[in-house]
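Teaching note: in complex prediction, the entire set of molecules is handled at once rather than each chain in isolation. The prompt given to students was simply: 'Predict the structure of this complex.' The entities are:
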Amino acid sequence: MTQPFRLPTAGRLDAAGTVSFTFDGKAHAGLAGDTLASALLANGVHLVGRSFKYHRPRGILSAGAEEPNALVGIHRDPARKTPNVRATVQELYDGLAAVSQNRWPSLAFDVGALNDLGAPFFSAGFYYKTFMWPRAAWERLYEPVIRRAAGLGTAPDQPDPDRYSNRFAHCDVLVVGGGAAGLAAALAASEAGARVILADEQAEPGGSLRFEDGAFIDGKPGWEWAQQTAAQLAARDNVRLLTRTTGFGYYAQNMLGLVECLTDHLAAPDPEAPRERLWQVRAKRVVLATGAIERHMVFPDNDRPGIMLASAARAYLNHFGVAVGRRVAVYTADDSAYAAAIDLKEKGVEIAALVDLRPAPQGAHVDEARALGIEVLAGHAVTGTEGRLRVHRVNVAPVNGGAPRRIEADALVTSSGWTPAVHLFSQSRGKLAFNEATQRFLPGQYVQDAVSVGAGNGTTGLGEAIAEALQAGGKAAKEAGVSKARAKVPNLEAGSTERWSSGMAGAAPGAEAGRKAMAFVDFQNDVTAKDIRQAVQEGMRSIEHVKRFTTTGMATDQGKTSNLHALTIASEMLGKPIPEVGLTTFRPPYTPVTFGALVGHGRGALFEPTRRTPIHAWAEAHGAVFEDVGQWKRAWYFPSGGEDMHAAVARECRTVRQSAGIFDASTLGKIEVVGPDAARFMELMYTNPWQKLAVGRCRYGIMLREDGFIYDDGVVGRLAEDRFHVTTTTGGAPRVLHHMEDYLQTEFPDLKVWLTSTSEQWATIAVQGPKSRDIVAPLVEGIDLSDEAMPHMSVREGRVCGVPARLFRISFTGERGFEINVPADYGLSVWEAVWAEGGKHGACAYGTETMHVLRAEKGFIIVGQDTDGTVTPDDAGLAWAIGRKKTDFVGIRGLKRPDLTAPGRRQLVGLKTFDPKTVLEEGAQIVADPNQPVPMKMIGFVTSSYWSENCGRSIALALVENGSHRMGERLHVPMEDGAIEVEVVPTVFFDEKGERTNG
Amino acid sequence: MLLIHCPYCEEERPELEFRHAGEAHIARPENIAEIADEAFQRYFFIRANPKGVTFERWRHIHGCGRFFNAARDTVSDRFLMTYRVGEPKPDLRKIDRK
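The expected output is the structure of the full assembly:
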């Protein structure tokens, strides 16, 4: 537990704050303030994972959010196993347990690494080409094997026990990124009086000041200024400083998604505290200070553990006090890597060589490096590396020919330049512009109220970046309409010895076209320069196609270090300039976001509302089994005495037709249509005629969409000249009201009609069966229930159990029946009274399954089950419900469309199986000839199918081509174990003459 | 999530309170039962779906319940204006496009 690579003279961590952790079970020590990556490096551990496809040993590439390689599992407890955590952002805590991924049996010896030997077979697109035949092998062999071999971490196997919270926030100015530019912008905006939110992904703001020790701001070292400024901002009433908070998504109208990590860095988090918090921020102005991301060099075998970004080596050295090696080589094509060599050298780390691809690099940094005794090999390239689990040798050769050299080194740091992090700008739908001079994509035309500052905007000098950010912060406050916005923008003197130049993108010498080298572009998806070229050779022209064919940039890091390399290589191969090849689209999230954070509290019982009827508790107490119908819980059937579903439903069906049954129909949609023009409006909304419907009578109505297809149905009662009680299907209530409101407000605004949803105001109790009148009669006051006074399809207002009621005489069973509507608060007590009366007549309570069977015995359709949005009234055998004399209703023109009037459409019919005991499967397809070759011509399908206790056989409804002309025909329902023979019959299976409604 | 200005409530409310209701300014033909197939096709099926400014209907369904019209840029999702049912289709040249 010695941390041999921790330097006593470097870094900002307190050497006394020792923290212990394990990696693959082995105990190590780190310091408070470490990331897992810095702590591993302090212990000399570079090998942390195996790559996705080839299982090549991989180390730590970066020191930040862009990390593609160092993904580990963090196992807090059996339920808290987080896969694919970037070791470079995971803060160390005491007792942290990390495990490596994608290796078996161990990280150092991994059987899957055989894939590396087979690399020629696993090149770009292999997935699409190799495993085509035989087809069955895909599911059983190829996919399971590939999925196991190629992959990252394992998903947790237990429900997530953590809580996640969610907040909305509004502000004048949101600053994303708390580096030098972001802090300066927040400073200026808040001094102007704006309400500011500043979000930074790190535990401590400061951005690249973390490693740029040549930076001075306001007379202080950069990092010190950043911490003081952050503290100053946090103390302001008008500033909310969010650390460990990533701005991951930029949505319409300046709404941004931020995710704040609250407990993942703690050793013993309060189990009641939320793990993460999702912020949905609406900002008047957004300042994007997202910085830039360093790119690696693309050269042969550039992926060995110990090879990392130059800026990462500086961060580990200057902030964490960790040397990434004892003898470090540097490979660069730009100026910024010189600082890494100089910093390391000054802290006593040996620099094996500084290899610079450029023929004659010049400047103070080159002189300084040479003055420190660093060997600068200008015009040289790294042509390869050696070392199985860690780099130990770097092969170098002059670019223009000459003797190669083998240089011993235990680390190699590289830089090919910096890519501005324009992800959020691009997500905001802003247009990126390619800057030829610096070979960068920079924010171009803005679509939203945002501005980019600093390195993310291509402003690379520290002084310029801070000046730009101060201006932008002040301007944003002003544009946000802050009334006390003072014109004065604070002034900050900044200076830096940091050097920047544009660098290069694409493959370096040794990885050019024609070479077999494994020169990685995208580490996480194992994509090499050769793969990109192969994609172009095989015909991919757009970068979008290259991306999908090679999977470059499609891993969880979304190609933060690799996209520009891939684009450059593709553009070279295509012989087209980069802007013409195009850039792939940046999409949220910027870094991976947990589902927990997005879902927040909305899971389990809080996922969506559960609707229960007033009679729910009674049904529960009487042993009902419930089914979900939309958001409703409906009693499905009422088993008694150990009955299974089949027996319970058979008994309920029998009882209803022999004596009576009581059914909770409260979920039915109800709409009150009122006004002098109510009848005219009903004429327009439904196919049926309504003007002549007498007060006190009911009619079955069909509602169409304008295209002529059935949209909803239900019984409508006319309570007065100007008042209709409309019922809709359970699921259809909201959309039917919406549909009615649409026409009333926008097409027929002159009609004097008011619509009110009354679905939840009325409890509806159906009493059906020969004894129904006997059951209802003792409870009803003021209504004559005789057939003469109250025939089938009529409605009366009166009292039931002393409660104001609307009593319908209607039937969805074919039996004599009533539906009692009482105010919902009285629903349960009226139900109990009806139940008590029913008991005297042998009635049962029945559920939705029996309701379905009984209506199918009568051939009554259920919209959405026997119709599917392509069924006309004629198809459903309901042409009688269309008012033939009417000149207008919604759907009248649609019904005349040629396809809807053509003969041979699928029409609703009944089916009887030849074996009465066979119950068809709903949804099963129907064919005329079961012996025809596959694929067979399907002429229809089963829409409803049940065992009918009352018919003593199975019954079914189906939509069949030309069905109404096929009565008596034999058709077939092919199933896995043979075709079932059926006969086409009328849709009414029971009481064909319909005598029982008065029986 | 969009913020939408309801021209009846006269304030901006979150998108959750609204429901989109298709393209605006498509009047149902008065003599709909009589129109030819082509006219019905134009009325019922054909929509502009432009890249740029679109005129569309919204309903403040979890608010005042009213339908209204909006001009929105489909590239930026920016609402140029919202206006009440019955008001004429605005002249694009006169709308502030910013």
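Point out the following to students. Residues 3-94 of chain B form a domain with the Folate-binding fold fold (CATH 3.30.2270.10). The first helix of chain B runs from residue 37 to 44.
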